[in-house]
Design brief:
Length: 93
Amino acid sequence: MAMHKERSRRTGVAVHLCDPHRPRQRSSNKNTTGLVRQYLPRGGDLSANNQEQPDTIPSKLSARPRQGLGVRSPTAAERKLLINSLQLNTLIH
């Protein structure tokens, strides 16, 4: 998120960073942690896994449809935003 201001400017999507020590602002983080726990249960032995399994988790989670995105996956929603942004930039220039 180091470049969140630039990404917001280019896509027109506001980025909200949570305030420290405000757990109510991070409900999405808690939900994501729960989803990750489906693949990596708490207390499990991570040394038994190679790096390949943890590397696949983000792509699996990004492919899951989300109700808040109109039952689209985050990957599909981001792709649509980027395509729209590119089309808008083409029209402007």
